[in-house]
Write a structure and sequence with these properties.
The protein is α+β, with helices and mostly antiparallel strands. It has helices spanning 4-12, 52-59, 63-69, 153-161, 214-223, 262-275, 286-295, and strands spanning 16-17, 26-29, 37-39, 42-45, 83-86, 89-91, 99-103, 108-112, 118-123, 126-127, 136-145, 181-185, 191-193, 204-206, 210-211, 229-233, 237-242, 245-250, 301-302. A nine-stranded mixed beta sheet has the order 2-9-8-7-16-11-12-13-15, covered by helices on one side.
């Protein structure tokens, strides 16, 4: 039976070794119906001055994505010449491929322009514990360049208690937490916006709003229109097909009450598989599935093997 390490190494054998260049948003051709994976895992050799935060900004990846894909590597001093995995291969989120889809569990947004030919994806900062971002269906209701910020009373009180009082209005500029652009959502009190801080994209850092890298929020603002639907989901386990094979992409589940147990995680994945008619007749590698769920590294890994190679009965938990 194949190990997860072998499956990942096989995936990486198809990756691209390259030097870090200028930042560019990820845009991929939209796969046809029945195909769910876009992009390709990439590998680079770290320079002495590299950090995961800087590499994330340069490659449109969030900080926690980088940490999850590179277990055991020092995020602040990866080491000259060490190979760093860039997790730039994605299973598209479940559901309609239209408008904006935000998957909280992977700290990532997907945008499907009208016409159905490409998909764009961007890392996000989301609501921290106690200020969780909502799971809901919304739409873009407004677009504002160079916004001012009027912090809500609850946030002003929080900052005042920490000895960091806020003014009633923060004008546009480099000190504005909304960055160069904001997009209002139909869910009251929530925005998609830029930031005056690079660190925090791809983490739980906000009061519920969705933070983007500034070059990404400007790119998105140039593409989306008022009225664009925004579907916000929380799916730590994504399943998808590519080339007739089935893949699982696992992320650490979000929780405001403590981490879920390993048994709970495995049960959630297996129940999702058993309830999905699309996977009813597949022969799944349950041991591989366990390894992928345990790793939570965000890399799509094949979990189905040829019919003669694996039993079809799920093991007892």
């Amino acid at each position: 039976m194949l190990s997860r390490a072998f499956a990942v190494s096989r995936c990486l054998s198809l990756s691209t070794l390259f030097a870090v260049g200028s930042a560019a948003a990820m845009e991929w051709p939209l796969p046809p119906p029945g195909e769910d994976i876009v992009g390709q895992v990439q590998v680079l050799k770290a320079k002495y001055e590299d950090t995961f935060a800087d590499l994330g900004v340069a490659n449109d990846l969030g900080y926690l994505e980088m940490v999850a894909a590179n277990p055991g590597v020092d995020a602040w001093l990866p080491g000259e010449g060490n190979e760093i995995i860039l997790p730039t291969r994605f299973i598209l989120p479940p559901g309609p491929r239209e408008g904006i889809v935000i998957n909280l569990a992977e700290y990532r947004m997907y945008y499907y322009p009208k016409g159905g030919k490409v998909v764009h994806t961007f890392p996000l900062g989301i609501g921290r514990e106690g200020w969780s971002s909502p799971v809901t269906n919304a739409r873009i209701t407004g677009k504002t360049p160079n916004p001012s910020w009027s912090p809500p009373q609850s946030i002003r009180e929080e900052h005042a208690a920490d000895g960091d009082p806020l003014p009633s209005v923060v004008p546009p500029g480099p000190d504005n937490p909304l960055g160069p652009y904001k997009m209002s959502l139909s869910t009251p009190g929530y925005l998609i916006h830029g930031s005056n801080k690079k660190f925090g994209i791809g983490m739980r850092v906000s009061h519920g709003c969705f933070r983007m890298l500034n070059h990404n929020v400007l790119k998105l603002a140039g593409m989306v229109a008022v009225g664009t639907p925004v579907r916000i989901i929380n799916e730590p386990y994504k399943f998808g097909r590519s080339g007739g094979k089935v893949y699982l992409e696992a992320h650490a589940p979000l929780s405001d009450t403590g981490d879920a147990s390993v048994v709970d995680k495995h049960t959630a994945v297996i129940n999702a598989l058993l309830k999905n008619d699309e996977f009813a007749n597949l022969h799944l590698d349950w041991e591989m599935l366990r390894e992928v769920v345990a790793a939570e590294d965000g890399l799509p890994v094949e979990i189905a093997q040829p019919e003669q190679a694996v039993a079809t009965t799920a093991p007892a938990i």
